[in-house]
Design a protein that fits this description.
The complex is a heterodimer of chains A (about 120) and B (about 140). Chain A is of the alpha/beta class and about 120 residues long. Chain A has 4 helices and 7 strands, in the order βββαββαβαβα. In chain A, strands 1-2-4-6-7 form a 5-stranded mixed sheet. A two-stranded parallel sheet of chain A has the order 3-5. With about 140 residues, chain B is of the alpha+beta class. In chain B, about 35% of the residues are buried. The chains are: A alpha/beta (about 120), B alpha+beta (about 140). Chains A and B meet through α2 and α3 of A and α2 and α3 of B.
Chain lengths: ~120, ~140
């Protein structure tokens, strides 16, 4: 018997022009294994699929802990390294406080909604 | 209908068990009609504190336990989390908002606990944390 979770899809990616718009499948971005897999999938977009403009839509996300922040910072660095851009949008107010308290709202580009996100590139 | 609720729970160094405690606490907060904002704040602080206790305190050692005592009243939520690790000095934790550290992958848990709770204190050798959330008054942010 294996309790290993199946490698399921954690991201929904839609290409709008040359921008990869990414929605999270999970409402909670929490445990380390899950975050690792989300990180792997996000990094793959840049490293293997050659996406340089990434818009992360947090509209579906209700809860997120600090463990996920490291992956976002790493993704931002990766995208910057290829002269691309990472934009975050539609972040719920409480989760936005996570970014504000950690001052990552000054490091990452955060906009209110997807429309503003698409125009931020 | 909003009588005080107290509980003591001991768990192994297992994040899945920590999640179950978080869910129990969330149910108690919902039963006491805490706002969604307060519940989010408490859940987040609990997540950070329990992950710290299990990962950094007990080093995921399955033989070691985490002791959780909590109380929910109409006015406030209190929790005490004790791990069996060597402890630490919170003053030694680098400021994650410092420009030199801002892009580090981790080290933001304490900052978030302090940001979302009314009071956070460490005791003993640093292996005990108490946190309080006064029911809010959350119109001011």
């Amino acid at each position: 018997m294996s309790s290993q979770p199946a490698r399921r899809r954690r991201l929904e990616v839609e290409d709008i022009g040359d921008i990869a718009v990414v929605n999270f499948v999970d409402k909670k971005i929490l445990d380390e294994q899950n975050i690792q897999m989300i990180g792997d999938d996000l990094f793959k977009l840049v490293d293997e699929l050659g996406r340089h403009k990434i818009l992360l839509n947090f509209g579906n996300v209700e809860f997120m802990s600090s463990a996920a922040l490291g992956k976002l910072i790493q993704l931002n660095k990766k995208v910057q390294a290829v002269k691309g851009k990472l934009v975050l949008c539609k972040i719920a107010k409480d989760i936005l406080d996570v970014f504000k308290i950690t001052k990552l709202d000054r490091v990452l580009t955060i906009v209110p909604n997807e429309q503003a996100g698409l125009q931020a590139f | 209908m909003d009588s005080d609720f107290c509980a003591e729970v001991t768990i192994s160094s297992d994040l899945a068990e920590a999640r179950r405690v978080q869910e129990m606490i969330e149910q108690a907060l919902v039963a006491h009609n805490y706002s969604e904002h307060d519940i989010f704040s408490i859940k987040l602080a609990l997540e950070e504190a329990l992950v710290n206790a299990i990962k950094h305190g007990n080093q995921m050692d399955p033989e070691k336990r985490v002791y959780i005592t909590y109380r929910v009243t109409h006015q406030r939520f209190d929790v005490r989390i004790t791990d069996e690790g060597p402890g630490f000095n919170p003053a030694d934790v680098p400021d994650p908002t410092d420009p030199d550290n801002i892009e580090r992958a981790c080290g933001r848990g304490l900052l978030l606990m302090r940001g979302f709770m009314t009071a956070v204190e460490f005791h003993g050798r640093g292996n005990i944390v108490t946190m309080t959330k006064t029911r809010g008054n959350n119109s001011d942010d």
